[in-house]
Known about the structure:
The protein is mostly helical and 96 residues long. The protein has a domain at 34-96: Arc Repressor Mutant, subunit A (Orthogonal Bundle). 56% of the residues lie in helices and 0% in strands. Residues 15-24 have low confidence and may be disordered.
Amino acid sequence: MTRRLIADIVRGPGPGAGPAAGEGGFRAVAGITEREREVLTLVGRGRSNAEIAEELFISAATAKSHVARPSSKLGARDRVHLVITADEMGLVAPPR
């Protein structure tokens, strides 16, 4: 199942699929703050909570709560779902 998920992400959406990109190349999601979008981008890039904390100059506990908020708002089941959501929102550049 994991291989299929990764293959689907690498392959990308089909023609006409996926949300329309908003300002800045990402799809806006109601209720997501700028900071939550920033954290979601880092999660989408595979950063751990410790790495997010270091990059944003916040504590690990604050990073954990920053990851939990968009997860809750978006109804994400787990971190993998957050990564997929970040990709669908256009927050993560495709691999080159």
